[in-house]
Amino acid sequence: MAAHSSLPSAVRNAVRRLRPILGDRLVTTSDPGYESTRRLWNAAVTTRPAVIARCLDADDVRTVVRTARDCGVPLSVRAGGHDWAGRALRPGGLALDLTGMNQVTVARDSATAIVAGGATAADLLAAAQPYGLVTATGVVRAVGMAGLTMAGGYGPLCGRYGLALDNLLGAELVLADGQQVTASPDDDAELYWALRGGGGNFGVVTSLRYRLHPLRTVLAGMILFPVEQARSVLASYRNFLPRCPDELTVMAGFLPGPQGQPVLFLAPSWSGRDLGAGERAVARLVAFGRPVTAQVGPMPYGDALGMFDGGMLPGNQYLLRTRWLADLSEPAVEVLLDAATEASSPYSALAVHHFHGAATRVGRTETAFGLRHDHLLVEVIAVWPPGEPVAAHRHWADRCSARLAPFALPGGYPNLLAPDEPERIRLAYGPNYPRLLAAKRRYDPDNVFGSAVPTLPRISGPRARTRSIG
């Protein structure tokens, strides 16, 4: 124990209890491999937990949760680890690492998949592709399915199949007191409701069951326009979106271009059976301007997600801001265009996600997710290489967000809101917020999962004991 003598006594006690069970899968600051185990994709996150527990199954998770609670050590959960703010790690705490739990089992007959808590979109799609099946995901393959799903899941299939959380049929999770429970329509429907939008505030999800859909290929790709055409192209885009069928979801935004000039992109995804109809829709998008390039074609859905993998390179530093817009008004376009041309870094980007179709036909109170009418989600993505001061990049992102605020809807996407934006988190859930807080009080009265995404406030009032379910 000499190597651990500098650790606080609570952490030392936790290490004593966990080392015989986890062996070298328990990593402290003095152990080999700590730095690589601690590292997240966002190099701006430098948080150092005191100990990291690399779990392989639900029994490991139960043991770690109980130990952290008994010893009084702050707990955090790392699944995909793609929260930009780094809430997967707590300073001096115990990080429960699920990245080794990435198994996926596909049941072709029922068109469902059981996905372990640490699996990414890439893991799920790779397992489902041989059967010609998919489910709704985000736009990047490396993102963990659990974190993405529990707070939302905007992506290329939003119009046809809804958000990722709309395809969640059930989940197994470990509660704050170490109980393993099931959340589904038949096994604690209230917890199932809260998980679909309320994030990781209620427990550690060890497995998720998804509805799958037959879809071997999508018509997808990228259409790039010079920045000088941005106003006219985005005006056409704005007018086009209300007429989009469910099968067509079109993302837009600005990416770094040659000679330091940004380029405007449209990224269509057609998931319908009629390929000809998709090609005609894409031709209309191309005709919005005079594109520099238009590379759109049939491909497996997983390959379509690969288009954005390059924008999430580990080692760079990231800071995100987000706004919800009812539509892409002319003033909002001006704000985005100014931000694109005045970016503090040649690596930064702006993304506009398209929410429509099937995602809007879920009742506002059917899940915890709070915004169910047509809208656009704006991501302001500041990216810079290690070693640069953050101030200029933070100013750029904050300025863009502040200038969009007068045109924005209340709240914002919970998966992207910062931990220090509690009022916007409250507004994001609208009338669902009181019910969500009641679920937090019921399932995690002591705020064991206080670093979850989104960050719900500490609940005061009578403690409610969790109960055995299922």
From TrEMBL:
- Highest taxon, organism lineage: Bacteria
Required cofactor names:
FAD
Report keywords, A-Z.
FAD, Flavoprotein, Oxidoreductase
Q: Does the keyword Oxidoreductase apply?
A: yes
Domain FAD-binding PCMH-type stretches: 45-215
Pfam families the UniProt entry points to: BBE (PF08031), FAD_binding_4 (PF01565)
* Keyword Flavoprotein recorded: yes
InterPro entries xref list: BBE (IPR012951), FAD-bd_PCMH (IPR016166), FAD-bd_PCMH-like_sf (IPR036318), FAD-bd_PCMH_sub1 (IPR016167), FAD-bd_PCMH_sub2 (IPR016169), FAD-linked_Oxidoreductase (IPR050416), Oxid_FAD_bind_N (IPR006094), Oxy_OxRdtase_FAD_BS (IPR006093)
Similarity comment: family membership: Belongs to the oxygen-dependent FAD-linked oxidoreductase family.
Write down what this protein is called.
FAD-binding oxidoreductase
Organism of origin is: Plantactinospora alkalitolerans
